[in-house]
Specification:
Elements (H helix, E strand, L loop, with lengths): L1 E12 L2 E13 L4 E5 L6 H8 L7 E8 L3 E4 L5 H11 E4 L11 H11 L6 H18 L15 H13 L5 E5 L7 H18 L2 E5 L11 E6 L2 E7 L1 H6 L1
Parallel strand pairs: 3-8, 3-9, 6-7, 7-8
Antiparallel strand pairs: 1-2, 1-4, 4-5, 9-10
Helix pairs in contact: 3-4, 3-5, 4-5, 5-6
Amino acid sequence: MIELQKVTLTFPDGDRRITAIDDVSLRGEDGFVTGITGPSGSGKSSILAVAATLIRPDSGGVLITDGDNGVIDAAQLSRTEAARLRRDRIGIVFQQSNLIPALTVREQLRVMSRLGGRRQRGSSGKLAEDARIDELLEAVGLIAHANKRPHQLSGGQRQRVAIARGLVHSPEVLLVDEPTSALDQEKGAEIMELIARLTHEFGTATLLVTHDLVHRDSLDSLVTVVDGRIREFTPSAASSAVR
């Protein structure tokens, strides 16, 4: 679960401050995809950055499920503590796949897995890590491409790797930024359906920023943001079909 409680974020602009997020409250439930949409400059990316603990808000709380300690307020953490939470509990899928050119698909996931603080040591840990990687590569349909490097993959395949990489450390929260922006409509639909399926399957709380409402049926709910405020909350037909 992730919940933003009355979050406000401002940035300096000369002798005044610009409000990027204005008293926003938003909850992402385990196993559901919550879409965030709105015009350019509306605050969508700022909401995602606050949720990712990349930016601390001026006020408000960012509550995130922590399997060890219950629920913690990420807005109250130090930079080091926030980085640790982000590493262990939050998966992030950026607009661009940002894969490392020299690494194979399997190696991309292995590097991310070993950055996580929850991995087990020793031979049993290695077996568990390999099993998790294979599980995710099967889930995103790339097990046959495990030894390929990014230049050998299509754009849609690279985005699938990025999604698997974001899930490799079994995060409670998955944050996705414009996953279809560089894809055609058919590939975009495949990626959105994949994110929805994996969210439901692994029980992550997924927040997904998108401007492309062609794929809104893949979302469990949709929040519209205008001028830093939530203007509309719309449950999707998909939510009643899934739950």
